[in-house]
Amino acid sequence: VAAAERLRRCVRPGDVVARLGGDEFAVLLGAAPGPEAVLPVAERMVAEFTQPCAVGERKIPVGLSIGIALLPEHGRDVDDVLGNADLALYESKEGGRGRATLYAPHLGERSRRRAAIEQGLREAVARGEFMLHWQPRVDLDGWRMTGAEALLRWQHPVLGRVGPAEFITVAEQTGTIAEIGAWVLREACRVAATTLPGLTVSVNVSALQLRQGDFVAGVRDALDLSGLPAARLEIELTESIFIDDANDAMAVLRRLQQLGVRIALDDFGTGYSSLAYLRRFPFDTLKIDRAFVRELTSRQDTQAIVAAMTQLATSLGMRVVAEGVERVDELDLVARLGCHEVQGYLVSVPRTETEFGRLRGGWDAGARPHAPALH
Ligand code: C2E
Ligand code: CA
Ligand code: CA
Questions:
Q1: Distance 159 CA to ligand 2 centre (A)
Q2: What residue's CA is closest to ligand 1, atom 4?
Q3: Would you say residue 375 has pLDDT above 70?
Q4: Cα 374 to chain center, whole Å?
Q5: The pLDDT of residue 198
């Protein structure tokens, strides 16, 4: 009711403010000659929602995102126009909310791409379109390769190569992540047992996957099927597992640990990055996100943060891995700040199984990159 009243304050008599359902409203502006007349109204609406709503004693923050479509330019009938306004709305939400976006044809293309990804994901496992690439992890003490992270690659029949940053989110939203994640686990364990002797393999698992079905049973099956010893498998999880139901997540982590599987906290330092998470569960590994590594050489405060995170994790018995190390100066700094291992383009980009085998075959523990000496 409060939201509807705020919207009504922004329009003229004769305009229509309607609730479509849930938290969705539609506004029909009668005499608006073009976008020049509509955008200021949208801006007023966004401004109306910067103040929280008072509900009883409490103040509840509310916000809105707006998608705009024009008649007749953006559709001939109600369905067309609402559909296109919806595409524009989606764009506003993606862009960080509190925005208004006017429909444009390229938004339609994006949604067609998304639909193609959504559809493609349903069949990708069965069609054998997925493949794992491997990126080495290297110990800073002896410059030995200690493990490899499995990174998922997808060749879409029409779109070509689609990156995991794009399709994993879609797989999570549409539920296909369970099937895909199960394939990744089985394939990673199979490759580890057959062609990666002596290495720990890391597998990324999304928070949703952890909650779907019996995740632990899936891990046990993958280990049994491949014969891989549990201690050679590391599951990488992000802090987001603690957001919705921390206790449930914790129970799954404990069962995994009982299996003998290692557990890593991935992307540490992005998002919530609470040091308190480190106390809540005895992770085996902490992976410091590239966002920190990137800033190390230019910012003193970042160095202090990484040093503190590393010290704390080390004293809690965790291995600390610096992610995304691209340059020698970054390598030297993370080593000095106490990290135990590195991963990143400096050592190698993620490679196919064959290319990875070649890298390992020619590995030289004496060949750690060093900065050229200054004279
Ligand atoms: P992540 O787990 O943080 O993986 C590391 C990402 O950083 C990889 O991107 C890797 O290629 C990239 N990277 C490695 N070294 C460097 C470097 O030196 N510089 C830069 N700029 N980047 C580097 P990728 O393969 O595109 O994967 C992106 C994300 O997708 C992963 O981030 C992970 O969150 C997710 N992902 C990948 N495979 C899987 C999977 O099998 N399951 C799930 N749930 N997520 C996956
Ligand atoms: Ca990872
Ligand atoms: Ca990461």
A1: 25
A2: 151
A3: no
A4: 40
A5: 96
Closest Cα to atom 29 of ligand 1: 165
Among the listed residues 363, 366, 371, the one whose alpha carbon sits nearest the alpha carbon of residue 137? 363
State residue 271's pLDDT score. 65
Residues 164, 99: Cα–Cα separation, whole Å:
27
Q: In terms of C-beta density within 10 A (0-12 exposed, 13-18 middle, 19 or more buried), how is residue 99 classed?
A: buried
Residue that is written with structure tokens 């982590």 in the block: 253
Average pLDDT over residues 85-89: 92
Evaluate whether 345 touches 326 at the Cβ level (below 8 Å). yes
265's torsion region: left (phi>0), alpha (psi -120 to 50) or beta?
beta
Q: What is the dihedral of CA 36, 41, 46, 47, to 10 degrees?
A: 110
Kindly tell me if the per-residue pLDDT of 160 is higher than 90. Answer: yes
The rounded Å distance from CA 151 to ligand 1 centre is 6
Mutate to test the pocket of ligand 1, among 204, 286, 296 (most ligand atoms within 8 A of CB): 204
Q: What is the pLDDT of residues 288-321, one digit of tens each?
A: 999 999 999 999 999 999 999 999 999 999 999 9
Give whole-number Cα distances, 184 to 3, 117, 167, 181, 192, in Å: 45, 18, 14, 5, 12
Protein residue with least CA distance to atom 19, ligand 1: 324
Q: Which residues line ligand 1 (CB under 6 A)?
A: 135, 151-152, 163-165, 168, 181, 184, 204-206, 266-267, 290, 324-326, 344-345, 350
